[in-house]
Amino acid sequence: MEKKKLAVGLILSGLLLALVPSVGQAAGVSFSGNLENGITVSSPDVLVPQTCFNNQLNLKMEINAAEKQTGTVLLQYKYTVPSDITQLIINQAYLDWQLSPNSFLRTGRQKISWGTGFAWNPTNYIGADKNRADLTTEFPGVDALNYEVSWGESAATLLIKPDSDSNSRLNNWGYAFKYGFRVLHSDISLTCFHQEDAGAFGADLAAAVGSWTVYTELAAKTGRMVYIDPDLNKTNRPGDQYYIHGIVGVQGLFSNNWMAQLEYYYNQEGWTGQEAAVHQSYLMDYPLASDMANYFADLRQHYLFIMVRKGNLVEDVSFTCCGFWNMDDQSYILSPAIDYQLGQNARVTLMVNCYGGDSSSEFGSRFNYQVSGKMTLSF
Amino acid sequence: MLRKYIIFGILVLLSGLQCLSPGFAELTGEQIIARVDDLWPKTGKFTITVTMLRPGKDDRTSKMQVFFKGAAQTMARYLEPAEEKGQGYLRLGDDIWFFLPNANKSIRTSARQSMQGSDLSNEDILKHRLSEDYDAKMIGNEMVDGQSNFILELTAKRPAVAYGILKYWVRKAEFLPSKTECYGVSGKMIKTITYSWLKESSGLIRPVRMEITSGIRKGYKTIVNFTDVDYDTEIPDAVFTKMYLEKGR
Lengths: 379, 249
Prior knowledge:
The complex is a heterodimer. Chain A has helices spanning 2-24, 273-285, 289-298, and strands at residues 28-42, 51-66, 69-81, 85-100, 103-110, 142-151, 154-161, 174-183, 186-195, 198-209, 212-222, 227-229, 234-236, 243-254, 258-267, 302-314, 317-326, 331-341, 346-356, 369-378. By secondary structure, chain A is mostly beta strands. Chain A has one domain: Porin (Beta Barrel), CATH 2.40.160. Chain A has an 18-stranded antiparallel β-barrel. Chain A has a two-stranded antiparallel sheet with strand order 12-13. In chain A, strand 6 (142-151) and strand 7 (154-161) form a beta hairpin. Chain A is globular, with a radius of gyration of 22 Å. Helix content of chain B is 16%, strand content 45%. Chain B has helices at residues 2-20, 29-38, 122-126, 242-247, and strands spanning 43-53, 60-69, 73-80, 88-92, 95-100, 105-109, 134-144, 147-156, 165-171, 176-183, 189-199, 205-214, 221-230.
């Protein structure tokens, strides 16, 4: 284990040493980003104030050392009122190296977005999860070394992820490999992933049929987190049990900027009712029982996602409506939103999240509604 | 009297011969559209400035760099405005991907989708040659701005293309397109495009300006100005890959 850590560290250090001198001779630095100011009004809740003001600055700095070498840092500064919380997050910080016209290396904290799904990506083994309540939420990237090579209609990607101290289930070093190719108007990728106590292999596909794109991702994974060991006070991960994790979806692009999307999600990892009953007693005794219950609720097995979008509904106003339906507990979020393009680099977004379901369900347990307005200025 | 008949007969014969000579009368719609396509070079790049004109609103401008190779490969990337910088399109034959930098993901899109709310569809910028996508039929002749034009009717060969029918005006003197009326499959007119070109001494075509007038929304117009047209640089195949779309510079 220590040898692996050392090897990954050495590789990363070597690359940094090779690239940093070039970055030092920077030919140019460019800044871009956006400033978001928003307000969220929620139905009464014990944990969250009813009205929140959110201010967020997303800053991207690019240092072009040479034509083929670039350093990029994406910072996020957040300030929330009335909680008075200030956060400065390094969302991404990586060095790019175009090794040849057909090969590319990126090392550092970066966003990994494997898979063809929109709301979920079961084959995005190393990338961060998404926020179901707001798909636009920006999560910090993952620390990794990313090597890509392409030839003809094919491409291969190798990801190596070092150890981390986070509580994430991906805190051990690991690697993932992807081989992608195009055939008959379809993008197909074969993928695999390995870390010390988990592994996976899978495939994804996106095929264009007229105005429709059909897509799917399917992975067989090991290392599922299904029960709590009360003696060790932590979850146990039997590495030798495979489970299925996948999505299938369809997206239609029509004239007059209409778009419709439907995605079905399946995860065998979460508890069945029987498993939940067996482990209920453990949860009751466990100090962080409610957190664990929420965690396992997130792993529930069936979801449906639907999205309808009409660009330029009226003048510069676009309309989007997203819906998530937890098919196990029958709870849902419905999120209609309108987006107004206010000049060249400004937009105003107004979104309503309507929650439904009983008090023990995933989406029905907290708010009845949330209304948020946001103004974004890009620069 | 006889002389008059002879002269008249010669004139009739000459006019008949002119009709049979290798002039325009023999050209079919397919041949004309092929001649237009041949004016494009094998590879090249240019920059376009797209200005959207909306009644009672400020003009909105974006800038894109476009690379192309052969009939099947096009890459286009937004340089401006800030909100769209880094977004881009890759076309390989009938397959088109759109890259969203915020999501770090390329998604499939179609030829008929509007380009960022403008009156342009993806096909208007990403495809330069029409003969592979449309069947052409000559339907008439017309004078436009003092120049004689063929009028062709182009019918979509397959559903992956943006328009059901195009009515296409081609200047006879240079085989340059001067105007296109774009119709949907239902026959509804979607837009009219007029073109300004320069023809180089090499015979290649150099686009200067396109003006797109919406047939659906009154007063909506998009102007596309072409600059930095470069046909001398060989564009490598590596540019027309998803890796370049997502990470290339």
